[in-house]
Specification:
about 170 residues
Length: about 170
């Protein structure tokens, strides 16, 4: 059971982030058309953002009055950012960085292989089979069905698709 007199890990930071977001949204709502009348286009967004600012202020003040637990650092990493979540965040960041240079197929293959192996916790062969199937399915849906252009990178994807098109198109003529 959670003790309501003690702050939970990350509560203070979350309160301040919500306050900053609320103030930003309030400013954006004001920019819509100012506050000229209750029927103006910005009136409802301004009122909603104003309620968010007030609520966030109440939360920040209440959090400031509550006491912190003794082991804040351990609690933070146990409850908010466990090691597996930190590894997945790092993996996503690396994937985003190398996607354009390596291309969709190799970077997605490596990303999926590592992620599935970490999260599924089965053999490497099982992870390879799942990764290959998922990559083929994703590629077929997005590249061939929806015709979304994916980052090519080091795999000569256009040449392969042109060769396959000529291979199958030549037999129909």
């Amino acid at each position: 059971m959670v003790d309501s007199t003690q702050k939970q890990p990350g509560e203070t930071v979350f309160g301040y982030l919500m306050l900053l977001l609320s103030v930003f949204l309030f400013w954006q709502a004001y920019q819509i058309s100012g506050f000229e009348a209750l029927s103006s286009p910005g009136a409802f967004p301004l009122a909603a953002a104003g309620i968010m600012v007030i609520s966030s202020c109440v939360v920040v003040v209440k959090n400031a009055r509550r006491q912190s637990p003794s082991q804040v650092v351990d609690s933070f990493f146990t409850h908010i950012l466990p090691p597996l979540v930190a590894v997945m965040i790092a993996l996503i960041l690396v994937y985003a960085v190398v996607l354009d240079s390596l291309g969709f197929i190799p970077s997605t293959f490596v990303f999926l292989l590592i992620a599935i192996h970490l999260l599924h916790r089965r053999s490497l062969v099982s992870s390879l089979v799942i990764t290959t199937g998922a990559l083929i399915l994703i590629y077929v849906i997005f590249r061939l069905v929806f015709q979304i252009i994916l980052p090519e990178g080091i795999v000569p994807e256009r040449e392969i698709l042109a060769w396959l098109g000529n291979l199958f198109g030549a037999e129909g003529n």
